[in-house]
Amino acid sequence: RKEVEQDPGPFNVPEGATVAFNCTYSNSASQSFFWYRQDCRKEPKLLMSVYSSGNEDGRFTAQLNRASQYISLLIRDSKLSDSATYLCVVNTDDMRFGAGTRLTVKP
Amino acid sequence: NAGVTQTPKFQVLKTGQSMTLQCAQDMNHNSMYWYRQDPGMGLRLIYYSASEGTTDKGEVPNGYNVSRLNKREFSLRLESAAPSQTSVYFCASSEVVAGPHNEQFFGPGTRLTVL
Questions:
Q1: Is A32's CB within 8 Å of B98's CB?
Q2: d(Cα A17, Cα A27) in Å, to the nearest integer?
Q3: Which residues of B touch A (CB under 8 A)?
Q4: Among B99, B114, B94, CA closest to B14
Q5: What is the C-alpha to C-alpha distance for residues A39 and B103, in angstroms, rounded to an integer?
Q6: Which residues in chain B have Cβ-Cβ distances shorter than 8 Å to A92?
Q7: Which of B1, B47, B64, B95 is the most exposed place for a label (fewest CB within 10 A)?
Q8: Can you give the pLDDT at residue A1?
C-alpha cells in the first residue's frame, strides 16, 4: 500500500466549477501536510500547507482529518490557470508525495 | 536570487556509464533533497541531507550516491547507469527537514534517459 494515495483523476471541469481532491495517508505519526502544484514539465511548487483546523487561501480550501488520515483540497470558481497536477504531500521523517491528480479546466 | 539550480537539464547515457547531477541553492537552507519522478509514481525521495555534513537514505537509494559538498551544493552520482534510472530528477531545499512550515523549493529538474 502506498503511503500517500490520491484520486487518480484526471478531472476535466468547466470554468467556474468547484472541484475537490482527496488524499489518504497511512502513517498515523505524520506531522505536516501540504498541497503542491505542478505544471506540465515544471517543478512542483507549494500551493498551501494544511492545518488541523482547516485553512483557506482565496478560492482554495484545505482540510485535514487526522482520525481518518484524510486530506482534501477544494477549489472554487475554477480558472483556466488552475489546470495542473495537484500533489498531496505528507511529512513524517521525510516528505512523501502522492502520485498527483491532474486537473484540466476548460472554457 | 536564483533559488535552486540544477545541471544538466537533459542527459542521455548508455547503460554502465556514470554521471553526476549537480544542485545548488542560494537561500541559505540547511536541508537538501534528491527526488526522482516517474509517471504514475509521484516523487520518490532518493537521498537527503538534513544539514551540512550529513546525508541519509530515502525511499529509493539503490544505485545512487550523494555528496553534500557544502551548505549550498548537493550532488547526486550514478556510478553505473541502468535503464531503470531513466527518470526526471529534482533537487529541492528547505530550511529544515520536518515541521509545518517546511516548504521545499525545487529546481527545474534533469531529464535523464539511459539507453
A1: yes
A2: 33
A3: 33, 35, 40-45, 48, 58-59, 90, 97-104, 106-109
A4: B114
A5: 18
A6: 98
A7: B1
A8: 67
Handedness of CA A41, A44, A23, A104 (dihedral sign): negative
Cβ pair B91, B107 in contact under 8 A: yes
Residue with the three cell numbers 468547484 = A18
* Intervals of chain B under pLDDT 50: none
Q: Which residue has the cell 468547466?
A: A14
φ/ψ of A63, rounded to 5, equals -130, 150
Do A69 and A26 contact (CB within 8 A), yes or no? Answer: yes
**Are B102 and B96 within 8 A, CB to CB?**
yes
How confident is the model over A5-62, as pLDDT tens digits? 998 789 999 999 999 999 999 988 888 899 999 999 999 999 999 988 889 999 999 9
